[in-house]
Amino acid sequence: MEIKLSRYIWTHTRKQQLWILVIIALSMIPYFMSFDVPKRIVNGPIQGQGFETADATQLFGRFAPDIPFIGETVLFAGVDLDRLSTLYALSFTFLLLVIINGLFKLYINTYKGRLGERLLRRIRFELVDRVLRFPPRMFKQVKPAEIATMVKDEVEPIGGFTGDAFVQPALLGGQALTALAFIFVQNMWLGMITAFMVSIQALIIPKMRKRLLVLGRERQLTARQLSGRVSEIVEGINTIHAYDTSNYERADVTSRLGRIFRIRYDLYQWKFLVKFINNFLASVTPFLFYIVGGYLALNGQLDIGQLVAVIAAYKDLPGPLKELIDWDQTRQDVQIKYVQVVGQFVVDDMVEPSVQAVSGDIPNGGLKHPLAAVNLTVVDDSGAKLVDRVNLQVNSGEKVGIIGNSADGGEAFVEALGRIVRPESGRVTAGEDDILSLPEAVTGRAITYVSSDPYFFSGTLADNLIYGLKHAPLKPAEYDEKGLESRRFDILEAGLSGNPDFDIFDDWVDYGTAIATSPEELPATMSAVLESVQLSKDVLDLALRSKIDPEQNGLLAEGLIGMRGALREALEKEGLSNLVVAFEPNSYNAEATVGENLLFGNAIDAVFADGAISDNAYFRKVITNHQLHKSLFKMGYEIAENAIELFSDLPPDHPFFQQLTFMNSDDIPTYQALLQKLKGKTIEDATEKQRIAIIKLSFAYVEPRHRFGLLTDELMQSIVAARQEFHANMPEEMRGSFERYDPERYIASASIMDNVLFGRLSNRYADGAEQINSIVTKILDHLGMYNDVFSVGMDYDIGTSGRRLTIAQRQKLNLARALMRQSEYYIFNKPLASVDQRAQEQIVRTVLTKLDSNGTNPSVIWVLSQTGLAPEFDRIIKFDRGKVAEDGSYDKLASQNVFDK
Amino acid sequence: MLLKDEVQMLRRVPLLAGIDQTKLKLLAFTSDRVSFAPGEVLFNQGDPGDAAYVILTGKADILVNSSNGDGQIRVAEVEQNSLVGEIAILCDVSRTATVQASTPVEALRIRKDHFVKMLTDYPEMTIEVMRVLADRLSQTTTELTEARSLAKHSN
Question: Does ipTM exceed 0.85?
Answer without folding.
Answer: no
